[in-house]
Amino acid sequence: MRPILCLVTDRRVSRWPLVQAISAAVAGGVDWVQLREHDLDAAALLALAEDVRSAAREAARMRGGQVTILVNRRLDVALALGDAGVHLGAVAVAPEDARRLLGPSLPVGVSTHAPAEVAAAARTGASYAFLAPIFAPRSKAATRPALGLAALTEASRAGIPVLAQGGCDAANAAALLAAGAAGLAVTGAILMADDPRAAAAAIRLALDAAGVKLPAT
Predict the structure, then answer these.
(1) What CATH number is given to the structural domain containing 32?
(2) What is the mean pLDDT of the chain?
(3) Is residue 85 one of the residues assigned to a domain?
(4) How would you classify the pairing of strands 4-8 and 32-35?
(5) Is 206 inside a domain boundary?
(6) pLDDT class of 215 with cuts at 50, 70, 90
(7) Fewer CB atoms < 10 Å away: N or C end of the chain?
(8) For residue 156, what are the contacts with CB-CB under 8 A and spacing of at least 6?
(9) Could you give the number of structural domains in the chain?
(10) What whole-number distance in Å separates Cα of residue 204 and Cα of residue 4?
(11) Angle at which helices 18-28 and 196-213 pack, to 10 degrees?
């Protein structure tokens, strides 16, 4: 499977207007866009999500690819969009409940902070998990100690794809994939870059180069 590059948004740290930055990042090779804007109410988040979906899909079409849209925590907004997945936090609904509402085909992911949490997510029907922070994050102050690569390797044995989050970039992409990550979830490495398209393209290139060197599973 091609390594996944997921952009997790935070318009407060973006050097460009968010929709513009997302479009550029998808053009550069982002596969998934997780809309994570906790300060917006449902109506504002839905309006932003519709703009993001249109821009991201057009950018993906222009490069001959596809893009998956995920909404962080707000299952109601994902349902209103009709074709977006949901990424659940610790205080959100259970993955199995989200799955019943979204149907069998849309992704339902979870944020985790320990390998045992990834295993629990796999048992409750999550499609994938983020494990964070592997390294210290760029886009915000660290609130947890870095887990490191060994935790990522342990988590990857849970039976669902695990995306590494926290301080991930082109320089450490190969090490993260070798440790078992199915891909990377990034914010600062793209949104805080002078050129989000070039930043995304560099990570995409590193992921693809590392991916072809991994043994088949």
Answers:
(1) 3.20.20.70
(2) 95
(3) yes
(4) parallel
(5) yes
(6) low
(7) C
(8) 162, 179, 180, 181, 182
(9) 1
(10) 9
(11) 30
